[in-house]
Amino acid sequence: MSNQHFNSNLDNVLTLLNKKAWALPLTELEQKFRVLPKDATAFGDELLNSLWSLHDATKTDNELPLTHLFAVRLSKFEAWTFRFFISKNQVRHYLNPLTQDASEVIHAEVSQSGTAFPAEDIIKRWARDYLV
């Protein structure tokens, strides 16, 4: 998915959810996950699908706690099982995609694990703190 296509779809769904303030943190996060292997689930697609699903849910109940629901969904994305790291002196230094700049993450090596990094509770906390 191109940057323009992602940004356009993100803008559309966030407008419908009345959550335009989420655009910058979600765009920055999506950019970091563009380095994942091509055969991995695209973070941007998963992000947009989750947001559109929330929008569909608001048609039934417009009082849904969107930030809380999205925080839970975001923490379950497969992309969190990927580890970004930089090797220095044969030691791996892991990067946290929630806190590292995109310029650092896009130059990192990537491996996959069976569990989320950062942990799901930290991802949820990030969402509650930055998606207001």
Furnish the topology, listing elements before pairings.
Layout: H1 3-17, H2 23-32, H3 43-58, H4 66-75, E1 82-88, E2 91-95, H5 102-105, E3 109-112, H6 120-130
Antiparallel strand pairs: 1-2, 1-3
Helix pairs in contact: 1-3, 3-4, 4-6
Uncertain segments of ≥5 residues (pLDDT<50)?
none
Report strand order across the widest sheet: 2-1-3
- Main structural class: alpha+beta
What is the first-to-last residue Cα distance?
26 Å
Taking Cα atoms only, what radius of gyration do you get, to the nearest Å? 15 Å
Provide a brief overview of the structure:
By secondary structure, the chain is α+β, with helices and mostly antiparallel strands.
What would you note in describing this structure?
Strand 1 (82-88) and strand 2 (91-95) form a beta hairpin. 20% of the residues are buried. Helix 1 runs parallel beside helix 3 (43-58) and helix 3 packs antiparallel against helix 4. 50% of the residues lie in helices and 12% in strands. The chain has helices at 3-17, 23-32, 43-58, 66-75, 102-105, 120-130, and strands spanning 82-88, 91-95, 109-112. The protein has one domain. It has 6 helices and 3 strands; from the N terminus they run H-H-H-H-E-E-H-E-H. The protein starts with a helix and ends with a helix. The protein has a 3-stranded antiparallel β-sheet with strand order 2-1-3, with no helix packed on it. With 132 residues, it is an alpha+beta fold. The radius of gyration is 15 Å and the shape is elongated.
